[in-house]
Amino acid sequence: MKMKEQEIEDRSRTFNDVGDFWEHPRKEGWYYYDGRCPTSNCIVIPAEDSVEVHNFVIYEEEDRGKGHGMAMIADIRLAFPDKHIWVDTCIHARPFWEKMNEYGYINSIENDYDWPCMDTTCTVCHPNRANGRRRRK
């Protein structure tokens, strides 16, 4: 189903002069941040005094480690300068988020437990999945 131009425009939102936030079509108060598309995007969930960041992704492997993620989280910090920005993170992304916390782009990583990523070929998070398939030990 194609969205009408006005419906698309109605979903657009700017926070603190940072644009390219798009209201999630099914989850009230959730926004896609597309300011760094097509390289990356994420979901932000602003609340009264905090912002939760979800599904933070740099799409292509060759674009990772080049500052795209830091630029995106810096945009989000500009959009929400006075809010507590927090994330949950999987094992392999924790070093990135620890740096972002150190630099002041986020305020906290909320999960203090190991959380494997959804990439079944990631040997950091899934050391027993040499070929990406789920299997019993």
Structure, explained:
The protein has 137 residues and is of the alpha/beta class. It has 3 helices and 7 strands; from the N terminus they run αβββββαβαβ. It has a 7-stranded mixed sheet. β2 (18-23) and β3 (31-33) form a beta hairpin. 20% of the residues are buried.
List key phrases describing it:
seven-stranded mixed beta sheet, 137 residues, Aminopeptidase, single chain, 26% strand
Describe this structure in a few short sentences:
The protein has 3 helices and 7 strands; from the N terminus they run H-E-E-E-E-E-H-E-H-E. With 137 residues, the chain is α/β, with parallel strands linked by helices.
> CATH class, please?
Alpha Beta
| Distance between the first and last residues' Cα | 44 Å
- By secondary-structure content and strand pairing, the structural class works out as alpha/beta
Rounded mean pLDDT score: 83
Helix content: 10-25%
Biggest beta-sheet profile: 7 strands, mixed
Q: In the CATH scheme, what's the topology name? A: Aminopeptidase
Name the beta content range: 25-35%
Extract low-pLDDT stretches.
Answer: 131-137
Order of helices and strands: HEEEEEHEHE
